[in-house]
Design brief:
With 112 residues, this protein is an alpha/beta fold. The protein is built from 3 helices and 3 strands.
Length: 112
């Protein structure tokens, strides 16, 4: 197969959680750290798979992508963790962005 038709090695990981995560700052940091550790481990595994099965992928750098709704709480903690470990973040909003923004205080990806 021509190299330019091969897909890049990308692993998309969905994250859904509660908006009302009643935790202390210390607990939130621990949750964020744990999500980051999982994403980093998945990134290492993806790199190994892409190298092992290089004939099936384009030569693009392997990438982990976090897909979330960007809401406050668990989604926002996951987004922060993803950015810290170099994963890309894609937000899916259930409403038009202007309508979705009305539902937030601190804002996730809905903060513009």
């Amino acid at each position: 197969m021509p190299e330019n038709l091969l897909p890049p090695p990308v692993l998309a990981v969905g994250l859904a959680g509660h908006r009302d995560v009643a935790v202390t700052a210390e607990t939130a940091a621990a949750i964020e750290h744990s999500i980051g550790a999982v994403l980093e481990a998945l990134g290492r595994a993806l790199t190994q798979v892409a190298a092992q099965d290089a004939a099936f992928f384009s030569p693009a750098t392997p990438a982990v992508r976090l897909i979330t709704m960007g809401a406050e709480g668990a989604d926002l903690l996951g987004m922060r963790a993803a950015r810290r470990c170099g994963a890309t973040v894609s937000c899916v909003t259930p409403f038009a962005l202007d309508e979705y923004r009305k539902d937030f205080f601190a804002g996730g990806c809905a903060d513009g």
